[in-house]
Design brief:
With about 350 residues, the protein is α/β, with parallel strands linked by helices. It has helices at about 45-50, 95-105, 140-155, 185-195, 200-210, 230-240, 255-260, 260-270, 295-320, 335-345, and strands at about 5-10, 10-15, 20, 60-65, 70-85, 105-125, 160-165, 175-180, 220-225, 245-255, 280, 290, 325-330. The protein has one domain (about 10-70, about 115-345): 3-Layer(aba) Sandwich (Rossmann fold), CATH 3.40.50.410. The protein is built from 10 helices and 13 strands. Strands 4, 5, 6, 7, 8, 9, 10 and 13 form an 8-stranded mixed beta sheet that branches. It has a 3-stranded mixed beta sheet with strand order 1-11-12, with no helix packed on it. A two-stranded antiparallel ribbon has the order 2-3.
Length: about 350
């Protein structure tokens, strides 16, 4: 897509009280999607690494007997868990006679019950996700699909049930629930085919999805979070927690939006030989435009307000005991990404 001189497709959405904050746009033409648009989301080497991981269930309710999550319940599986003193009504066949010989008391062997988990992915598919700050990196939407695919593969290898629902200003068609390792490839193919469109309504969408489910589970919100304010997100996270959901907010960002040096250089057009003195910001979702001159004061206010916005998101999640992790589009599903997932208790 050609952009006239002085016009730049930026990821700034609206004027915030006292400054600027990141925001959304209309989908670019197909030729701007880059050479990686048709590549597989995850290669075999990455999938092999993911098989050694499992999702951290936390307080999310686990069900059934087919999965690999340890339960507080005790049963008759071969996996030993603990001993307890024999009491009337216990199965005498589970008395450990070796312990009786040593301690002269009756003890019953307890075994571990494993259960599956219901895992839900809300994948932001709005137009603001179909943006990248440079030709050398993927769009935010592709990065979001890769991360969703990686976590879905981990869940499926653990025999958890997964559902993936794209959203913009409304909920899209749900994929799943599906379960089992044979579903890994179909799930990745489904994600590969998804396309971004529409505006964003983050908090209302999360609320609508929550109210449409009778049982809580593990919910991943994968988004650039360019909708509403942190206090709106906190309100819906508070309700999720009250209803028993275990939630993780996975924030997809482009360095040109949030990195101080990258965003400053990009706003100033440092890579533009024409030396533009003004730019026109184009909202990807609504098509609204805003003309401005990116002088030192404006750039400083933008950087300060982006930092304030990011801090607000982290605080909102922390206060609701919700895992929050920020992922750059410059990363792949590599050591850095997996280390962050471990650090935030999202995978084990």
């Amino acid at each position: 897509m050609s952009v006239p001189p002085g016009r730049r497709n930026v990821n700034l959405k609206a004027i915030r009280r006292g400054g600027w904050r990141p925001f959304a746009h209309r989908a670019p033409q197909p030729e701007t999607l880059g050479p990686d648009a048709n590549e597989r989301l995850l290669d075999e080497r990455t999938l092999a690494r993911l098989r050694r991981l499992s999702l951290f269930a936390g307080r999310a309710r686990t069900e059934g007997l087919a999965g690999e999550h340890r339960s507080r319940r005790r049963g008759t599986s071969p996996e030993f868990a603990d001993f307890k003193r024999y009491a009337q009504g216990d199965d005498f066949r589970r008395i450990d006679w070796n312990t009786y010989a040593r301690l002269d008391g009756l003890f019953v062997r307890l075994s571990e019950v494993t259960t599956e988990l219901s895992v839900h992915f809300l994948l932001d598919s709005s137009a603001s996700m179909d943006w990248r700050g440079g030709d050398d990196r993927p769009t935010k939407f592709r990065s979001a699909k890769c991360l969703t695919g990686a976590l879905a593969a981990i869940a499926l290898w653990g025999f958890d049930r997964i559902s993936i629902v794209p959203f913009s200003d409304s909920l899209g068609r749900s994929y799943g629930p599906v379960q089992g390792r044979a579903q890994v490839v179909p799930t990745l193919r489904h994600l590969q085919a998804l396309q971004p469109m529409g505006e964003t309504a983050l908090a209302p969408i999360i609320g609508a999805y929550m109210h449409g489910r009778s049982r809580p589970g593990l919910l991943f919100v994968v988004s650039d979070l360019l909708s509403g304010e942190p206090d709106e997100l906190q309100a819906v996270l508070h309700e999720l927690r009250g209803r028993g959901w275990q939630t993780a907010v996975l924030h997809i960002v482009d360095d040109a939006e949030v990195s101080t040096d990258a965003s400053s250089a990009w706003l100033r057009g440092a890579d533009d030989a024409r030396g533009m003195t003004s730019i026109e910001l184009i909202d990807r979702e609504s098509g609204a435009t805003l003309r401005l001159a990116p002088d030192d004061d404006l750039v400083a206010r933008y950087v300060a307000n982006v930092r304030s916005w990011l801090d607000g998101l982290e605080l909102a999640c922390a206060e609701e005991q919700t895992a929050y992790a920020r992922f750059s589009t410059a990363w792949g599903i590599d050591d850095l990404t997996l280390a962050l997932l471990h650090e935030r208790s999202i995978v084990a």
